[in-house]
Design a protein that fits this description.
The protein is of the alpha+beta class and 141 residues long. The protein contains three helices and five strands; from the N terminus they run H-E-H-E-E-E-E-H.
Amino acid sequence: MPDDVQDRAKTNLEAQGRMGEIVGAGEYDRLTEVLADGLVDHDPAPGQSEGPKGIGEFWTTFTTAFPDVALEPVQVIATEDYVTAVLEITGTHQGEFLGHEATGKSFTVRGIQVGRFADGRMTERWGATDQLGILQQLGLV
C-alpha cells in the first residue's frame, strides 16, 4: 500500500477513535471536530436532524435511555476512504426509550458503522444496530 494511502487510512482511523472518545465523554458539541458539516447520515433515527447536530441529538437521546451505554470494538477496518467498525453494544435501560419507560434490564447486541472520510472528517455514515435484540432483551416485544 502506498504511503499516502496508509497515511489516509491512519488519519481516518484516528478520527473514528476521536469520535468514540467524544461520544464516550458526552461532549456532542465537539462532534464537528470529526464530522463534516454536510455529513450525510444514510441511516438516521426517526426525526433526527441532519449533519453533526443530528448525530449529537441521537446520542443525547440514547444515553438518556441508557446512561451506561458502552461500545466495544470487535473489528475495525480502515482504508484510505472508509472506516468500518463492528461493535458490541451494551447498556441498562434507565430512561425512556422509544416511548417505553425504564425497565432496569440490560442488553448486549451487535452494531456496525461504516463511515466515509475526507481530510480526516466523516462525510457519510451508514449503520445498523440490532434494535429488535435490544427490545427483546428489555422485554418490550
